[in-house]
Amino acid sequence: LETIEKQNEFWLGLDQELARREALLRSDGFASIEQAERLGGLEERLLVVVDEVVAAIRSTPKAIDTLTRIATKGRSLGMHLLVTSQSLVGIPREVLINLRSRLALAGTDEVELLQLGCKEKMGKSSGQTKAAMLMHDGQTFRVIVPLGARRAPRTAA
Description:
The chain is α+β, with helices and mostly antiparallel strands. 41% of the residues lie in helices and 20% in strands. It contains 6 helices and 5 strands, in the order ααβααβαβαββ. The chain is globular and about 65 Å long.
């Protein structure tokens, strides 16, 4: 809902944070945030959450550039990316292949499951659960998600 200028300012700020972290690690002689943490570095990790990533990408060209940089370099700099989308259409391959963990809910197209790295069929959902697949570091895990909380039966007084 922000103006293009405000959106570009936001993405530019994330780009600048990437550059700052890279320069800081380099100046301290570290190759990654993991190495800095092992040797006493105090840089905090940052989680960038983008809901409906395709809409963000379409909003301004700066978004796609910044998201691609975070996806490809961010993890080693302590910047992590969590994105959501209802479809893979419009998500650049550079971003997609650098998402270490991917979760697909029931109803995901089989072609998109393959693009996410899932080589298995989705499990069945029931009236009380939702099937999902988690792909992480080349492995696939079946997940069953409960739908809502069950209420305790009422007793008459």
